[in-house]
Amino acid sequence: MEKFSDKLKFKLNKIAKKWDVYIEQKEKNEVLVNDGKAENKISGLTTGFSVRLFKNNKMAYCYDSGNDFEKKLNDLKFNFFIEGYENFEFFSNGKINKVKTFDENLKNIDINKKINVILETEKYAKGLNKKVKFVRDFNYSEEIKKIFYENSNGFKAEYEKTTVYTFLTMIFREKTDEIAIDGVKSAVRYSDLNFKNLVEDIGERGSKLLNGKSVKSGYYDVVLPSRISSEFISFIAPLFFAENIRKKKSLFCESKSGEKIASEKITIKDDALFDYGTGSFPFDGEGNSGKNKLLVENGILKGFLYDNLNAILMQKEPTGNSIRQDFKKFPECGASNFYIEKSNVKKEDVLKKFSGIVIDSLMGLHTIDTVSGNFSLGMNGWLMKNGKILQPIKETLITGNLKELLKNIEMVGDDLEFYFNFGSPTLFIKNVLISGKE
């Protein structure tokens, strides 16, 4: 990768004095299991690169896979057409913080052993209880990446990263009612995927949700389990991206550091140095050091996330949040490991006395209005009184505003869980409007 970059660098310096090179080497392995049969898809090793050049306040850009880059670079000479890069610069200072992003044992575990584990898990899921009718879409995938980056500022470095992922759907049926329940787990290390626990969690949820019905409209105390709140947080994170603040696409665009924007129980961080976090990295997509950033402390806004371009436009320091989804994409403002900090409150102790609604799934998260904060989401779950389940719930809406919701968080649990690179403990929220039957 470095030799390839040296070849590129020789050509780039003839075109522009300011440039960067991003090279991504990826190997992917996927297993699909259905009805006791396994299909293994191996993508093999692929390599792709992208190049950016900056000249006369404009940018030229190209990407390709393979080593045939001569024509691409020749085309770049005449394609400085992307505007908005006045005073653009690289801030990389050569410092690279250490973080664990790679599973050394992943390749040492034979794929046939992994397939057998998944087949046994599917068998276990089918026989979990009488309400399980069948299992579908059992997917396991693993990805091994090597990332190399170099820019004209003198920064040059690389790191390796692994990601493992599993997804499972189980179908439950009782009398005339049928429901599909999904489960997802992701990690950097294969050993952190507990397939049996995933099945048992889905089984418990499915058994509780059959024969659900709506509830009377009104204000209820609500529980967002960590599995749901971590997914919910993934839709809140962009509200802290500098690009959305600058373009006024966030409900926090007028908020200032020191302002209270959430309950005092809420502390939010974005941490690229979280060992074995799926969003971790030693340096970002523009060579800035990975950092641990405090965004909200006890409900008080502390700051936002900046990539290079938006830091320059907004006259701020970059926070190491220039994220590349893959070699084909521009670096853009994004999150590393974005999460709400856990507390020492035992989730189970609170649930033993809880009266209100526990939410099991939210539908329509993408419809949240990120400017006003208003939302109306479909939900399933169950109604509880004094720690006991009264009935499962479906065909119901949860309605409100993100600002009010964040300020109404009464307790935060001790069970921090991540949905890929977004994490949260269980959240206990008071006075939430639930729209069901009149």
Question: Could you explain the architecture of this structure?
Answer:
Strands 4-3-2-1-5-6-7 form a 7-stranded antiparallel beta sheet. Helix 3 (111-126) packs parallel to helix 4 (195-209). It has 9 helices and 21 strands. With 438 residues, it is of the alpha+beta class. Helix content is 19%, strand content 40%. The radius of gyration is 24 Å and the shape is globular. The protein folds into 2 domains: 2-206, PmbA/TldD fold; 213-438, no CATH class. Strand 10 (292-297) and strand 11 (300-301) form a beta hairpin.
Short description:
By secondary structure, the chain is an alpha+beta fold. The chain has helices spanning 2-15, 70-76, 111-126, 195-209, 226-236, 242-246, 308-313, 347-351, 402-407, and strands at residues 18-34, 37-55, 58-65, 82-83, 132-151, 156-174, 177-187, 218-224, 268-271, 292-297, 300-301, 322-323, 332-333, 338-340, 356-363, 374-385, 388-401, 409-412, 417-419, 422-424, 427-435.
What brief labels describe this structure?
40% strand; PmbA/TldD fold; 6-stranded mixed sheet; 7-stranded antiparallel sheet; 21 strands
How many strands, what sense, and barrel or not for the largest sheet?
A: 7 strands, antiparallel
Count of the domains: 2
Mean pLDDT: 93
Compressed to H and E, one letter per element, the order equals: HEEEHEHEEEHEHHEEEHEEEHEEEHEEEE
Strand content: 35-45%
The strands making up the biggest β-sheet line up spatially as 4-3-2-1-5-6-7
Uncertain regions: pLDDT < 50 for 5+ in a row? none
- Radius of gyration, in Å, reads 24 Å
Helix amount, in percent? 10-25%
Question: What is the 3D shape?
Answer: globular
| Backbone structural class | alpha+beta
Count of alpha/pi helices? 9
